[in-house]
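Reply to thread "Modeling small-molecule complexes from scratch"

Following up on the discussion above, here's a worked example others can learn from. I took a protein sequence and the SMILES for thiamine diphosphate and predicted the complex. Inputs first:
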Amino acid sequence: MTGPVHSPLIPTDLPKLAQAGDVRTGAQLIWETLAREGVDIVFGYPGGAIMPAYDAMPGYGIRHILTRHEQSAAHMADGYARASGRVGVAIATSGPGATNLVTGIATAMLDSSPIVCITGQVPSTLIGSDAFQEVDFTGVTLPVTKHNYLVTRAEDIVAAIREALYIAASGRPGPVVVDITKDAQQASCPFRWDSKPISLPGYRPDMPVLPPEKVAKACSMLAAARTPVILSGQGVIRSGATDALIAFAEKTNIPVACTLLGLGGFPASHELSLGMMGMHGEAWVNQAIQQSDLLIAVGMRFDDRVTGTLATYAPHAKKIHIELDRAEVNKNVKVDLPLLGDARQILTALTAEVAETKREDLWAGINNAKGDSAVRDIQTLPDTGKLFAAHVIHDLWRYTKGAAVVVTDVGQHQMWEAQYYKHDYPRRLITSGGLGTMGFALPAGMGAFCSQPEGPAVWVVAGDGGIQMTAAELSCCAQEGIKVNVAIINNGFLGMVRQWQQFFYGGRYVATPIQSPDFVKLADAHGLKGLRVTERGEVRAAIEAAEASPITTVIDFRVEQEDSVYPMVPSGAALGDMIRRPDSATPVDAQLGHNPIFETAKD
Amino acid sequence: MTSPGSRTFVAYVEDKPGVLNRVASLFRRRNFNIESLNVGKTHMPGVSRMTFVASADRDTALRVEANLYKLVNVLHVEDITDAPAVYRLLALIKVRVEPAQRPEVLQLVEVFRAKVVDVSASTLVVELAGTGEKVEGLVAVLRPYGIEELVQTGVVAMERGSGHGPSLASASLRPRFD
Ligand SMILES: Cc1ncc(C[n+]2csc(CCOP(=O)(O)OP(=O)(O)O)c2C)c(N)n1
């Protein structure tokens, strides 16, 4: 076993910034600009068309993390951004290096995460000639970026990178690509820096103040409502609106349901917290939404995973939509009152004007519904010696005191995490919600760690399938001294797909049993720590050993193989129509028998 | 002026490479159906103007507008469907005309206030600027003679009266919020 390389996460070299008029190469200007804009870490992988930039990197005080695949570089930048609120930067070469970034860029796009990807491009004179490693990367990324640039002159590099950082972070955040030709990196020009704030004629992320008549309208709708529910999305976290939301909810006594990406935006332990809504949300949350007469949606976009079939979605409810992006208004669900702007400002304005309200009977109804919850029961399941994923997550929550930064992959474990890890703080759940990208968790967790090495422990929670998509990054953890804790929820299946096969495809498990390497040995092979847990009694010690270890630690949790996530709203079904955890009286087959559900093309 | 179910938009965009591609890509990606599209320079340096007709109801139109504003190079967008406006497109029609038939064809051209811009032994090229219906009307009456070629531009539109269209520096470049 070789020891890990511990390089400190603080730059060792000092910046060597230019004076106005100093002649610099385009390659130097890339780092000059990033350093001046406060970027101190980039995630990347070198290659021919970006070699001039790599050659110029040392000396600018910017740390480089060498990933094992460019997809991971984009996910690391994304995890860095989601954990810290700062822009994450990834860098790659042209052609295959650039196309490897695309899944990570699309992931950031669908979840509105601010990243900037800098790519090398073939020399401008060869563009369009199918040169070696040429790919039209601005063309490829057009539909999955907020904006992109092709830079062919050294003189344009500073402005393009500054604008990219600004566009990525402002308004509704998103990924921006800056594709820089090799000759632009090699050419020289005098350094210029415009100290004025960036202003682009066609891009105006600032929003006007909400007109008072809209506030008044919202207040009268709130006053008339008997069973209102707040739907809290990721926009609350992005806008830093947690305090404003708490104040609003407390004054109006309206319960708060969160989307998957909204978890932590409103503290789970708050007495007004309902829990997660949607496909795997708690039954009473979806019931409360279906029976509501007023939904106040904040920074969420009525994704199909949270609405179920639109035809029967919250049929009695009027809808107020607090949203930054005008293009989201009336996209999926028709709303009665759109309030456009920053969630924090709008909630603060509403709280100032709205009347204080008590709602005892609303809570009586909800508490009643909570009684037969399918999610809560597993917490009280007796310890029969079997290890359930829900137990693992529940214990992880308990022994990390609910304070870890949890980064999940995609599948059953992702839903169990959302159900059983009670998030009380914003930016401590990082997950690929919109694109559902397997392989996201490990690199995104590494990026999250890099954004705050002294911050709360990072726990990567992944399935045995997803972890194998980017497991090569364990090597990067070892080389770069990145410390994350990796909980593999190992059920021997591509679990979520297996669950759908069980429910909707007659139990035919085609291509879902999956073989894995010995994860303990895999960790060992990287000079990292590996542990295996097969019984619930061992969970706590493993969690504590991982947290106490200074190096990345992988825990192979061997869980029940054919467990399913309950409750579940089959896609295309009404939100209130859930499959419950089977008991002896009504096993799943019988539930499906009573309520035949067919997968449709829309699933 | 547009067919029912269609709406006409005017968009001012930065005159930069790739902007047309960004707009077209947006329509394709969002599944908005474009019936016609025209781009050209304006009196403002660096600013192009697009007129496009899309099949959309009022709600979709608002989202078309909002999505266009999300493009960094789009300066200003207006849905002018319900405003009084002038609509024009240009058509060139090459008709087969034997010398003996020339007078009657020229008469038809006259009625439509079209122009003959090229004459050969057996053909005439007719130029007509007008609305889509007017072009269709002329095509219908020329068809029996035999149309050899037909080309037309997308429609361009301009609101009647004063006070429309932004100047680059003005606050009217800001999107409307309603
Ligand atoms: C890149 C990618 N490929 C395929 C899928 C489809 N998919 C969704 S969940 C899932 C199974 C995940 O299995 P595993 O990682 O073992 O996690 P589990 O569901 O067992 O917790 C698959 C294949 C996906 N989301 N992403």
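What I'd highlight from this example: DSSP finds four helices and nine strands in chain B. Residues 86-156 of chain B form a domain with the Alpha-Beta Plaits fold (CATH 3.30.70.1150). Questions welcome below.
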